[in-house]
Amino acid sequence: MMVKEDIPTGNIQQRNVAMNRLLFNQVVSYPRSPLIVVLLMVNCAASSYAANYVIDPARTNVRFTIDYFKNATNTGGVYNVIGQLQYDPRAKIGNISLVIPISSLSTGNKKFDLKLTSSKFFDMEQFPLAYFKSTKWYFTNDQASPQVTQVDGKLTLHGETHPVTLTATKFNCYLSPIVKKSVCGGDFITTIDRTKWNINKYTLLGITKNLTLNIQVEAAKL
């Protein structure tokens, strides 16, 4: 659940300070690191006038699929993702930062979860958090209602940072009758080579190195 706090509606600097304080309240239960501070406090100058949204951890997750010894596909997800979104479709501006807690990884099989979070794979003890920070958003040429098509960014995982490209399968904003404010959300997909992030275990034995990620994001306007 998102923490409720009054956000100033006038001065942009005041709004950003209040937004960052709200985000810090969300991460209080997670281990602190300098990178969290960078991701949650830095606002791109190009998007400083875009609307600010806070990620809803109850509706934001990163699900994954991976082939297992060429005879089955394993699925799972990482949940309770937090972060911030800045978005203005008319100006074709987007910016998103996500903090992804590896401790929330779940496949429905506790033994498999322990294996994936162990030092053989994601190594949760040494790298408890993953991060995504967008670098560029792409939109359709529709002047009346441009749609998001792609988001480029950098994924930090297992102590490594590499560029990734997310393909938007849907993204939309609407006035939520539940929270009584604008909500933006959508689905994105990408496939990464896990060996680039030094997650190499069992690639020679049949567990594919390619990991398909399906990312669901939802954020409410401040």
Question: How would you characterize the overall build of this protein?
Answer:
The structure is a single chain. The protein is mainly beta. It is 14% helix and 44% strand. The protein is built from three helices and ten strands, in the order ααβββββαβββββ. Strands 1-4-5-6-7-8-9-10 form an eight-stranded antiparallel β-barrel. β7 and β8 form a beta hairpin. The protein starts with 11 loop residues before the first helix and ends with a strand. 28% of the residues are buried. The N terminus is likely disordered.
Q: Considering DSSP H and I runs of 4 or more, what fraction of the residues is helical?
A: 10-25%
Order of helices and strands: HHEEEEEHEEEEE
Main beta-sheet annotation: 8 strands, antiparallel, barrel
Low-confidence stretches: 1-13, 26-39, 41-47
Beta-strand proportion: 35-45%
Report the principal-axis shape. Answer: elongated
